[in-house]
Amino acid sequence: MRLRGKVAIITGAGNGIGRATAWLFAQEGARVVVADRDMDAARDCVAAIQAASGVAHAVETDVSQDTSVADLVETTLDLYGAIDILMNNAGVSIGGSVVATEPERWARTLDVNLSSAYRTCRAVIPQMIQQGGGSIINIVSLQGLYGYPHFAAYAASKAGLIGLTRQIAVEYRDQNIRCNAISPGGVIVANKPARTQRLEPQFAHNPSGSPSPTPSADTARRTSPTASRLRQFGRPEDIAYAALFLASDEAAHISGHNLVVDGGESASVSEHA
Ligand SMILES: NC(=O)c1ccc[n+]([C@@H]2O[C@H](COP(=O)([O-])OP(=O)(O)OC[C@H]3O[C@@H](n4cnc5c(N)ncnc54)[C@H](O)[C@@H]3O)[C@@H](O)[C@H]2O)c1
């Protein structure tokens, strides 16, 4: 077991990438705090982990609220007495060009996707210092690295989070705290299409940010079990395995890194032409 004895907080772990990571971390011996504002989803995730003999606890958390994050840290310490791993995963994907993005949606996107990580890290790092170290993983996006039309606030939030990742890596290196990012490409979450505008153009024009209900024919082709898994949408567990590596002691000498997990999409010149 690669995380035996560790305590992990994962935000936004009720669904999607966070949920897959919570399940995998628990399978690898971690005690997992499933932090989500959606308590039905969080409880469902915990039930799935417990059904597989894992240890997890759901904590209602809104990462955009200082008091809620403080409660999350306090509850985790009351439950498990330590925090070894923090994965900042909760996020919202709100579409819109610069001009089309009203100030409220701009502020909300940056608050949930970027300031949330400042908030959780500020609350957790002193505990990690006291314990002699820890691992922080920030879930960013290809959209923090490359321009995709109609995602101004989202791209800015994810690019900012890459900067914060490096900053934490530098500032707390001497305290043995590692901080890394993961940049997923498009990931199919349950029955929702991936949120990469480039691959699902119809999503970019939906100002609510809600995914369209059914995957397109192109999505179905790309996700066919007989097709190569590269150059198509990823699965939540693809990101979870990357997070497992970065959380584990196998990555003890890796910090300040942004690990791209996109099936090779961003490696191709033609994808960016
Ligand atoms: N799915 C993709 O294609 C993709 C691609 C690149 C990056 N990402 C990033 O991965 C992360 C997870 O994405 P996902 O597709 O699994 O999303 P998802 O919508 O399936 O799950 C996100 C979870 O975060 C929770 N959440 C939202 N706002 C919250 C808040 N204020 N406080 C606490 N919890 C909150 C939701 O309730 C939900 O359970 C996000 O940061 C997203 O930007 C996703």
Structural description of this entry:
This protein is α/β, with parallel strands linked by helices and about 270 residues long. It contains 9 helices and 7 strands. Strands 3-2-1-4-5-6-7 form a 7-stranded parallel beta sheet, with helices on both faces. Nicotinamide-adenine-dinucleotide (NAD) binds near residues 64, 92, 112, 189 and 195.
CATH third-tier fold name: Rossmann fold
Taken in chain order, the helices and strands follow as EHEHEHEHEHEHHHEH
Distance between the termini: 43 Å
Number of domains: 1
Instruction: Output the strand order for the largest sheet.
Output: 3-2-1-4-5-6-7
For the record, the CATH architecture stands as 3-Layer(aba) Sandwich
Shape: globular
- Kindly state the percentage of residues in helix: 40-55%
Describe the SSE topology:
Blueprint: E1 7-11, H1 16-27, E2 31-36, H2 39-51, E3 55-60, H3 66-80, E4 85-88, H4 103-131, E5 134-139, H5 152-171, E6 177-184, H6 201-204, H7 217-222, H8 236-247, E7 258-261, H9 269-272
Parallel strand pairs: 1-2, 1-4, 2-3, 4-5, 5-6, 6-7
Bound molecules: nicotinamide-adenine-dinucleotide.
Nicotinamide-adenine-dinucleotide binds next to helix 1.
Compact description:
The protein is α/β, with parallel strands linked by helices. The protein has nine helices and seven strands, in the order βαβαβαβαβαβαααβα.
Q: Which key phrases capture this entry?
A:
273 residues, alpha/beta, Rossmann fold, 9 helices, globular, binds nicotinamide-adenine-dinucleotide
